[in-house]
Design a protein that fits this description.
Length: 348
C-alpha cells in the first residue's frame, strides 16, 4: 500500500515536473521599467526622453513607464503607418489621444493604438513616489515604436521577441543606461545656457532674450531624445522707453510663448494685438504693465524628412516695443510651472 502510493506519487510528481518545464517559461512574464523624462531640482533642465529608449522583451512581457517630472508627457504606441496626432486637441491641455485614451494595463500588438493621457507630477509634488505610472502588455512579436505626443523628438523602440530567443540585456543594464542618459541630457541642458548668452558681458546693451534652448540627441535604433533648458536666459532685462526687446527661441523641438498680463486659456494663437512682421516674426507694442499680450507659440520648423510636404519656416522671434516706464512681468504660458518667467524693467 505504501509502495503503491509512493509510485503513484512519484509518477504524478514526474508529470507535474514535466508539465511545469513546458508551462513555466510562459508564466514568467517579466515587467520591465522605463522612465519617461527627467528634470533638475529647479525644473529648468529637462530630459525629454524615454530612459532607456530601446529595449528587448519577450512576448507576454509588460513595460511599466514612470512619469517623474513637472513637464507633461504621454506614452503612445501608434499603429505602424499611422499619422502622428497633435498633442492637444481644440482645447489646449486636453489630449485628443490616438484618438481617445486607453486604460492602464492595455495590450499593444500593432493593430490598435495605445496611449496615456498627459501625465506629470502635481504642481507642489516633488516626491517621486507619487509619480504616475502606465503599464502596457506586449502579447505579439514585432518591433514597435513608442513616442510622446507632446514632444516630437522623444521616441523609443521596443523589440518584442519570442520566448525561445535570448534577450540581450536585463533590467539592471537598462537602469544603468537610464541613469547615464539622464545625467548626460540634464548636463547638456544646463550647459546650453552658455550658448544662449554668447558674450553676455559685452552685449549689456543688447535687448535680445533667448527663449529656451535645447538640442535633439539622436540615438541610433531608439530614435530621439531632447535636452531642453526651459528658461528665459536673461530673465531680467533693463531697457529704456521706446526700446524694442526681441525674444528668440533657440530650442529645435519645443514650443514656448512670451505672455504678458492675463494668461489666455489657449496660448497657441497670438493675441489680437500681436502683428506679423515682413521677416516672419511677430511684434507688439506695450504701453502699460496692465496690458495683456501673448506671442502665441514660438515654434521651430519641424524636422525635415523625405516623403513629406514642405513645411513652413518656424516662427521663432517676437519683438515688443515698450512705450512707457515700469516693471513688466511675463511668463512662458507652456512652461511657467517649470519656473520659465521673466521681467522687463523699462526706465524713463
Ligand atoms: Cu516654454
Amino acid at each position: 500500500m505504501i509502495a503503491f502510493n509512493f509510485i503513484r506519487f512519484s509518477a504524478i510528481f514526474r508529470w507535474t515536473l514535466a508539465l511545469s518545464v513546458l508551462i513555466i517559461p510562459q508564466l514568467v512574464q517579466a515587467q520591465w521599467q522605463v522612465i519617461a523624462g527627467a528634470e533638475s531640482p529647479d525644473r529648468g533642465s529637462q530630459a525629454l526622453a524615454f530612459l532607456p529608449n530601446e529595449l528587448w522583451v519577450h512576448t507576454g512581457d509588460s513595460i511599466r513607464w514612470t512619469f517623474p517630472t513637472h513637464e507633461r508627457h504621454t506614452l503612445t504606441l501608434l499603429k505602424p503607418g499611422q499619422t502622428r496626432p497633435p498633442g492637444f486637441g481644440p482645447i489646449f491641455g486636453i489630449p485628443v489621444g490616438c484618438p481617445g485614451l486607453t486604460p492602464d494595463g492595455s495590450s499593444f500588438d500593432g493593430t490598435a493604438c495605445v496611449t496615456t493621457g498627459v501625465l506629470l507630477l502635481g504642481e507642489d509634488t516633488t516626491a517621486t513616489e507619487s509619480s504616475p505610472t502606465y503599464t502596457v502588455n506586449f502579447p505579439a512579436a514585432g518591433n514597435f515604436k513608442f513616442v510622446c505626443l507632446v514632444h516630437a523628438d522623444m521616441t523609443g523602440v521596443v523589440h518584442v521577441l519570442n520566448p525561445s530567443q535570448t534577450l540581450p540585456h536585463d533590467q539592471d543594464f537598462y537602469d544603468q543606461q537610464a541613469q547615464d542618459e539622464q545625467v548626460l541630457l540634464l548636463a547638456d541642458a544646463s550647459r546650453l545656457e552658455g550658448r544662449g548668452t554668447p558674450g553676455h558681458q559685452d552685449r549689456a546693451q543688447s535687448s535680445d532674450v533667448a527663449t529656451g534652448i535645447g538640442e535633439v540627441v539622436t540615438t541610433t535604433g531608439g530614435g530621439s531624445q531632447t535636452a531642453s533648458l526651459m528658461r528665459f536666459l536673461r530673465d531680467t532685462i533693463v531697457v529704456q522707453v521706446g526700446d524694442t526687446v526681441e525674444w528668440t527661441s533657440l530650442d529645435p523641438s519645443i514650443n514656448h510663448t512670451v505672455t504678458f498680463g492675463v494668461e489666455p486659456a489657449d496660448p497657441r494663437p497670438r493675441s489680437a494685438n500681436v502683428m506679423l512682421t515682413s521677416d516672419g516674426a511677430r511684434q507688439a507694442v506695450i504701453g502699460s504693465p496692465a496690458d495683456s499680450v501673448n506671442s502665441g507659440f514660438l515654434s521651430p520648423a519641424p524636422q525635415d524628412r523625405a516623403g513629406l510636404a514642405q513645411s513652413p519656416p518656424g516662427v521663432t522671434r517676437f519683438r515688443v516695443t515698450f512705450t512707457s516706464p515700469g516693471t513688466f512681468n511675463y511668463i512662458c504660458a507652456v512652461h511657467d510651472q517649470l519656473g520659465m518667467k521673466g521681467t522687463v524693467i523699462v526706465h524713463p
